[in-house]
Amino acid sequence: MTAGMVKTDKLGYAYRQEDEHLALDGVDLSIANGEYLLVCGASGSGKSTLCRTFNGLIPHFYGGRLHGEVRIAGKPTSKHSVADLFAQVGMVFQNPETQLFNSSVDREIAFGLESLGFPRANIQERISATAQILNISALLGRNPQELSGGEQQLVAIAAMLAIGPQLLVLDEPYANLDPVSVRQVRAALKVIHQRGIGVVISEHRLPYTVPDVQRMVALQGGRVVLDGPPEQLLVQDVEPFGLELPLPVLAGRRLGLPRLPLSVEALQTRDVVSPLPSDLQTVPPVFHSDGADIVLEVERVSFDLKGFPILHDISFTLRQGESLAIVGANGAGKTVLLKHLNGLHRPTRGQVRVKGKDTGQVKVSQLARQVGIAFQNPNSQFFKMTVWDEILVGPKALGFCDEAWLRELVRLFRLEPLLKRPPYRLSDGEKKRVAFAAALAHRPAILALDEPTSGQDWHFRSILGALLAELRAQGQAILLVTHDLSFAEEHAHRWLLLANGQVVAEGSPWKVMSDKAAMESAHLEPTDSFRLFSADERTLADPVQPRGGRHV
Amino acid sequence: MFDPRTKLFLAMGYAVLIAASARLGWSLAEAAVLLLFIAVIGKTRLYLRWLRMALPMSLFFGAVVWWTADVRIAALAALKLLTLVSVFFVFFSVTLPEDLGNALVQIGMPHIVAFVVSTSLQFVPTIGRRIRNVLDAQRARGIPLEPGWSALRHYPAFLGPILIQSFQMAEALAEAMEARGFGRPGRTFLKDYRMRTRDWLAISFGLLALIVCLLGMRGWG
Amino acid sequence: MSTEVQDFDMLKTTDTRKAAYAVVLVAMGVALAPYTSIPIGIAKVNPTQHFVNVVAALLLGPWWAAAIATMIAVLRNAMGLGTLLAFPGGMIGALLAGLFYRYTRNIYMGAAGEILGTGFIAPVVSALFVAPVLMGNVIPLLALIPSFLASTLAGAGLGVMAIRLLERADIVHLKA
Ligand SMILES: Nc1ncnc2c1ncn2[C@@H]1O[C@H](COP(=O)(O)OP(=O)(O)OP(=O)(O)O)[C@@H](O)[C@H]1O
Ligand SMILES: Nc1ncnc2c1ncn2[C@@H]1O[C@H](COP(=O)(O)OP(=O)(O)OP(=O)(O)O)[C@@H](O)[C@H]1O
Ligand SMILES: [Mg+2]
Ligand SMILES: [Mg+2]
């Protein structure tokens, strides 16, 4: 009976008792003790739902209708409450803001132990032991809300690990993290796994996960469609399931390697004689700036917030039809810089000019006419009851309504079926699409997107990619703000690399990535494509010379 | 150095004293003692920042009283209000709400109440951030939202997203709390809160001082 | 054997949920206050407190609502954002709103409870208890009523709209 850690038997689940649609549908899965498992699949395929069944949040917290059963170490979850199960199955959620609710890190870690009624001395001991394993001893006295995203994720893991679970479940732990923080969390998970604790991780980004896990399960429409070790599964095409094959895997397949390499390192340690197929390389788009108007000039901008310097001496320009990516690690100052474009922040020193006008002299509501921004969290920008009204907000407020353009937007962003629905209840990907369309509705000269791909599946990334290409072709100036370098490599003509509020490199994506010192100081790593192909000097020659543009 | 309960008791005693004073002289003396205390514990800068918000409120209150009564009563009222509220400031600047909550739980207050007090304090900046994001997002779409009266006109439109996000946040928080065994009976506490001799001494001394002062006020007042 | 189908209560208002809602409502009451307060009369018109009262009363009941109002008053005083009048000005309305709603199950009756409590009873209580503490005498009642009333009317109206919105957005559900 107690064979394994998790055993699901024809598991089905509907969030509402009356729902026909099942979020999970006939899932038979067993997870052995100490196994490291990846749960993947398109957005809405049921990953989070499945994770929630492992510690009893489903059905006890969410309610709804449960078919079949889930057993955790032999115990059926329908008969055991979350309070009974949480000591065995630790759950780490995607959003650190809400899962850390104590005033200091040590209290955060203590919380679960306090719930279990551990004696005081024991709690202290476990706090320090756990902090040591995860290498966060220096953080114990800090307020969790003031930590960086990566540190917060580690604290959330520590809070669960301290309880001594047999299984740790993580729902999209990497979605908002920059590559360096991802590396840190991955290392921590490896250590945890080595200690014999099972790990289940739900993620979209295969390149970060498949090298680490022993087994992967892909979901589609609430059903298990793939189940096995990644080396074996990735031999087939997984795009239909909303998954993107990591580049080294693609290369391995094309080269006909017997055992698929899952990471760049794995591929590089093989003696591959034949050259890598060059069509696998991501080639940044090329911008011909001849005569294109300058729409944005940022000149020697510095910005202090509450007495702390955040940005130092930043200069760049953006031309019509050009796509510029501002890349940098968490906290580098990307969002703060973005808010300078429409006057939400005003430079402490220096000047920002939009179409020649100094933003210091113009009201935000007037600048909005020229600059459309879609912010990091789409939830903060919705305030109408239907998607259609939401898109109309800008045009109405600014008194500029172009019917044909709005119809075009609806087509571009595939919003037709959503127009009558309230924006709050859409999936994350749909929300982002609505936010982008709303930012573009009044035809601003500049479109700025803050972290457009965070938490999105491969499907969304490819739709967004096609869309940006179309906008570029129409002459739209685009500013991407992101730490997703592979997306930025594919869709930006030029990069501005930001580290601690300073521009440390600028130029074509390849030029920036080949500047090792700058990349290091920005805590970023080159993309897989760049790392695989950079050995070949020929491709490294900078193909993108924005003629006439400022160039460092 | 003292138990949170001792601090609470002393703060309440001082508040009673302030409330009971009916003469400007007494109130000035009480304010002076409080200021001295703030200086001694090294919170002067924090206090000055806090005053920037609290002072206009008290002056305003005084002005209204002036309008309904007279100058002397108004000055007294404004001063007393400010000192009373300052007691709150002092108390919370030397006591973590979490400590207070947990200490009170040990003498019978339900844990859930203590939890709400300390956790909501953690969430004030979080919600503040969300509010700013919503304002920024709306202004970025061309809605003129400068602070003040005109903002009130847009209050409903601005409240909507805040509300929805806040309740979504509440759901996620509840989920995270469940996942760490919130509400499970038999909870223990990381920190031990014990009333020691010095706590009892401080309480006795405070009580004595309070009685003497009150009697003194009667005698001369 | 295990092809059984079991139903579980949707969105049960467990203690955990109540605590989490309370946390967020208190934080909202404190964080929103600076954006919405307008000084008029003896106190400030601050619809936020009353709006939170109505939402809390309808979702969590009278006792929680009163406790939430108290916590908001304590925190606002500690942060220098509120006067002592925040105590009677919040708690009484919250309690009455909760009680009215509990016995009628009518959103508007809940709002009416808030308006009665804050607009009419709270000024009397303030004048009888808070004012003497500060001024040594009972201040004229009439000075308080208009500003309390203005705050609570605006707040209660927003509270009703808020509950409607949350229900329409499918985020909370009032029990019929
Ligand atoms: N709280 C909820 N109430 C009702 N339906 C929900 C809820 N959460 C998810 N669903 C629905 O259940 C299905 C599976 O969603 P789930 O969140 O598990 O997907 P996911 O694979 O985690 O997606 P993502 O990658 O976007 O996080 C979707 O159709 C979704 O709309
Ligand atoms: N309102 C604020 N108050 C104080 N500090 C702030 C504020 N907003 C941003 N900062 C600080 O400014 C710095 C840059 O923040 P910013 O949000 O621009 O980072 P980012 O590059 O967008 O990071 P991420 O990838 O996590 O979104 C950070 O150190 C942050 O703590
Ligand atoms: Mg999910
Ligand atoms: Mg950002």
Structural summary, described in words:
- The complex is a heterotrimer of chains A (552), B (221) and C (176).
- Chain A has 552 residues and is α/β, with parallel strands linked by helices.
- Helix content of chain A is 34%, strand content 23%.
- The longest helix of chain A is centred in the middle third of the chain and has 16 residues, at 179-194.
- Chain A starts with 5 loop residues before the first strand and ends in a 12-residue tail after the last helix.
- Chain B is built from nine helices and no strands.
- Chain B is flat.
- By secondary structure, chain C is mainly α.
- In chain C, 71% of the residues lie in helices and 6% in strands.
- Chain C has helices spanning 15-36, 47-60, 62-78, 86-104, 107-135, 145-168; strands spanning 5-8, 38-40, 43-45.
- In chain C, a hairpin with a 2-residue loop joins strand 2 (38-40) and strand 3.
- The radius of gyration of chain C is 18 Å and the shape is elongated.
- The N and C termini of chain C lie far apart (37 Å).
- The mean pLDDT of chain C is 83.
- Classes of the chains: A alpha/beta (552), B mainly alpha (221), C mainly alpha (176).
- Chains in contact: A-B, A-C, B-C.
- Chains B and C meet through helix 3, helix 4, helix 6, helix 7 and helix 8 of B and helix 1, helix 3, helix 5 and helix 6 of C.
- The complex binds adenosine-5'-triphosphate (2 copies) and magnesium ion (2 copies).
- One magnesium ion binds next to helix 13 of chain A.
- One adenosine-5'-triphosphate (ATP) binds at residues 149, 305-306, 310, 328, 330-336, 376, 483 of chain A.
What structural keywords apply?
A: 552 residues; alpha/beta; 6-stranded mixed β-sheet; B: 221 residues; 9 helices; binds adenosine-5'-triphosphate; binds magnesium ion
